Amino acid sequence: MIESFLRYLAHEKRYSEHTLTSYRHDLEQLQAFLTDHIPGTEIEQVDSLSLRAWVVSLVDDEMSARTINRKMASLRSFYKFLMRREVISKDPTTKLRAMKTPKSLPNFAQEPEIQRLLDHLQTPEDFEGWRDRLIIEMLYGTGIRLSELLGLEARDIEWSGNTIKVLGKRNKERVVPFPLPLKNTLKSYLKAKNEAFETNASTKLIVTNNGEEGYPMLVYRTVKRYLDQFTSIDKRSPHVLRHTYATHLLDKGADLNAVKDLLGHASLAATQVYTHNSLDKLKSVFEQAHPKA
Questions:
Q1: Where are the alpha helices (DSSP H) in the chain?
Q2: Which of 128, 162, 163, 210 has the fewest beta carbons closer than 10 A?
């Protein structure tokens, strides 16, 4: 049934390959545990006590609470699938409780660091140079996810309104505005791309030096190379630029609901994590400015 479940996620839910790999690993890990500790028990026959024993084994292995919760979420999806298919009559995950996880604030670059990066970004005026500049400016200028950047095509750009059409999680489309300077970078990049590959390149906006569809590690390496030069933060990934985008918007007084829509969050709770950073800045300003602080 694991294979049927994964096919369902791939074809009906349209989950990414990365997500499918995680689900497969979680379910196969549980089956291996059952084989070793409860011989003769298949994953479809498991009860709540067996699942709890598996969770305890993960805790004993010093696995983080966040990872264990993700694995439990995989199981919940799997057993709900079995319930719908009437393979089982009782969901064994109903008694599982999520573990408490420490709250961590998102990493983000300070505004002066980003300003220096954008002002002093040195890239060659060729295809590769314009692509690197576009990756940095697009991620910070729009706050889109890595997967959303790699999914963009030139036809998704609306030039007159300075917006892009983004296909986000669960195939939800949204329209995101981009800053005016990014328009010039987009035009220069597309010109360089057309000159370098003519009609042989992928239709995706971000492509490799061979004109093939861009891939995550290409973007990771690009972002890290340039952030290394201008920021002191520990993490230097594409998602850090997304965090930075959201934090800077809120620092400047942007409406929380508007930022939620720009980021493509399904709920306001996902966006509220950025308000902690903004509140810290407000407290700092208050303490410096208020005579009684």
A1: 2-11, 17-37, 48-60, 65-84, 111-120, 127-142, 146-151, 180-197, 216-230, 238-251, 256-263, 268-272, 275-289
A2: 210
In whole numbers, what is the pLDDT of the chain averaged over residues? 89
Mean pLDDT across 164-185: 92
Of 131, 145, 248, 260, which is the active-site residue?
145
User: 90 catalytic, yes or no?
Assistant: no
Answer yes or no: is pLDDT of 20 > 70.
yes
242 is catalytic: yes
- In the residue annotation, 52 being an active-site residue is answered as no
Among residues 71, 242, 243, 260, the one annotated as catalytic is 242
Give 87-112 pLDDT, tens digit per residue. 999 999 998 888 887 666 678 888 89
Question: What torsion, rounded to 10 degrees, do the Cα atoms 243, 249, 251, 254 define?
Answer: -140
For this structure, is 18 an active site residue? no
Q: Could you confirm whether 145 is annotated as catalytic?
A: yes
Catalytic residue (one of 66, 169, 281, 283): 169
For the domain 111-288, what is the CATH superfamily, name and number?
Intergrase catalytic core (1.10.443.10)
Highest-confidence range of 118-127, 167-176, 187-196, by mean pLDDT?
Answer: 187-196
